[in-house]
Amino acid sequence: MNSNPDANNLSGKALLIGSFPLRDHREAVRLILEYTPEIPCWPQLPKLPGEGMLVQFSRGLPGFEPERLVLNPEREDFEEDRLRFYEEYLAVTEARASLSETRFTLSPEDAPGLYALLEAGEGRRLPAVKGQITGPFTLATGLKLPDGRAVFYEPELRDLVVKLVALKARFQVETLRKLSETVIIFFDEPALSGFGSSAFVGVSGEEVLSALAEVAEAVRSAGGIPGIHVCGNTDWSLLLSDAPFRIINFDAYDFSEKFISYAKELKNFLKKGFVAWGLVPTLRAEALERETPESLSERFRALSEELSRRTGLSPEEILSRSLFTPSCGMGTLSPELTLKALKDLRALSLHLTSNA
């Protein structure tokens, strides 16, 4: 199971989703480096203007109106800007132009947390490092047309979103390589929790997989490791069987039984990838207050034993292909519970790996 070159570096490590309930990026980076030193990420602070998950990564889309979270193809400058969009895209992907002079960068104004992490890590080589970006399905269903329809339903506009996400993810790989050779990029896809429901009537699995495959390939071709984060339940066969991700991260505190029911798909996936178990319950304050690192460790052991029974893989093999995270971001927690979540996550990872 450990023939994969990434396995020894990543097995059993703790990492974060990204969001903090703070207003100081440097303080968030300090906490990240203290509690997830093996795989630090850059922080997103949704309490600050411009760091919501829809607006933060949408700059550069033709017709984008951030105040309304609308993509407006009726604007006078839309067609001209769309032409420039594809010219820049082709210059990067076909003519090998640098991303640095294009709309596909993340500036210090777009992502202050990214630059705070770069500053804190200057001169250091980290074992691994993580970036994140809103995934194409969530971004293209969250952004609307002027008539209220989701952008995802318009293939030409969806293509703009997918290509923007792909190259902004690639930009993160190239930028974060200053800190580590091992760069992980998570595509945050909370909207996939609604896939297959009445909320997304008419959306096919093929359309979703096509969008996900394009952005994952942008990360992989740049030398990064593509991962996906879904903080609810979804059709896991879609991601385990077909999607090109090396890491699948989910809310293992509330949805683990449904997840491990896909035993056949999981067995095949674990031959090439990692499951990042979101065991620290950041979506439910009362559960976070109640749980301890020991109780969460027992929860994982029970899960791995049941998954072992269903797949034939040993618990040790499963642990070797496991990472540990909070169930979701921490942007809605109190500062006190945020610190508890960080401490519990660190202790959980150390406890499980020290006893392996």
Radius of gyration: 20 Å
**CATH class annotation:** Alpha Beta
Order of helices and strands: HHEEHHEHHEHEHEHHEHHHEH
Q: Percent of residues in beta strands?
A: 5-15%
Helix content: 40-55%
Measure the end-to-end span: 15 Å
The major β-sheet equals: 6 strands, parallel
Overall morphology: globular
Total individual domains: 1
What does the average pLDDT come to? 94
CATH architecture: Alpha-Beta Barrel
Secondary structure class reads alpha/beta
Uncertain spans, ≥5 residues at pLDDT below 50?
1-5
CATH topology: TIM Barrel
Number of strands: 8
Number of helices: 14
Protein traits:
single chain, 356 residues, alpha/beta, TIM Barrel, six-stranded parallel β-sheet, two-stranded antiparallel ribbon, 14 helices, 45% helix, disordered N terminus
Verbal overview:
There is one protein chain. With 356 residues, the protein is α/β, with parallel strands linked by helices. The protein is built from 14 helices and 8 strands. It is 45% helix and 11% strand. It has a 6-stranded parallel β-sheet. It has a two-stranded antiparallel sheet with strand order 1-2. Strand 1 (64-65) and strand 2 form a beta hairpin. The longest helix has 22 residues, at 155-176. 47% of the residues are buried. InterPro entries: UROD/MetE-like_sf (IPR038071). This is Methionine synthase.
